[in-house]
TrEMBL record:
The record marks 17 as: Transition state stabilizer. ATP binds at residues 9-10, 17, 88-90, 98, 123-129. This is Phosphopantetheine adenylyltransferase. It is an enzyme of class 2 (transferase). Belongs to the bacterial CoaD family. It comes from Candidatus Scalindua japonica. The keyword Heme does not apply. Homohexamer.
């Protein structure tokens, strides 16, 4: 059985993330979408909120589960007993960044393998920072995120 982990901050969950999850769930027998705590990022949503957003938008994918990890990804990978990391790549600069991560993970744990999946063209420009900027300025983000995520984003920026 092939099991992979798709790690990320998912702050917020975008249609690009969901695209990678759907496609990854067709490749692997089990896909764990792991919400990570990154001390260098300042997320606007709690871990539980991000996990709920992911759960709400991946319900139909029976072989996908949502989890959380804190600390080193390689340690988490050992904990869930897999060595396959799934990463979505949008641009050449994404690939360069992800390539460095993949090599670092392999140095930290020699059996780690990273599988890259190209984001679908319609989501290739999306990133969470851009979406947060658009919503903070009152723009329409309905084409970028599911409606439940949009609602939470709008609530968050209205109360800020």
């Amino acid at each position: 059985m092939k099991k992979a982990v798709y790690p990320g901050t998912f702050d917020p969950v975008t249609y690009g993330h969901i695209d990678v999850i759907k496609r990854g769930s067709k490749i692997f027998d089990e896909l764990i979408v792991a919400v990570g705590h990154n001390p260098f990022k300042n997320p606007i949503f709690s871990v539980q909120e991000r996990m709920d957003m992911l759960s709400n938008n991946t319900k139909e994918m029976q072989n996908t589960r949502i989890d959380y990890f804190d600390g080193m990804l390689t340690d988490y990978m050992k904990e869930v007993e897999t060595n396959i990391i799934l990463r979505g790549v949008r641009t050449v600069s994404d690939f360069e960044h992800e390539f460095q991560r993949a090599l670092t993970n392999r140095v930290l744990s020699a059996d780690m393998e990273t599988v890259f999946i190209m984001t679908s063209q319609e989501y290739s420009f999306l990133n969470s920072s851009l979406i947060k900027e658009v919503v903070s300025l009152g723009g329409d983000i309905s084409k970028f995120v599911p409606s439940d995520v949009e609602k939470l984003l709008r609530q968050n920026f209205i109360s800020s």
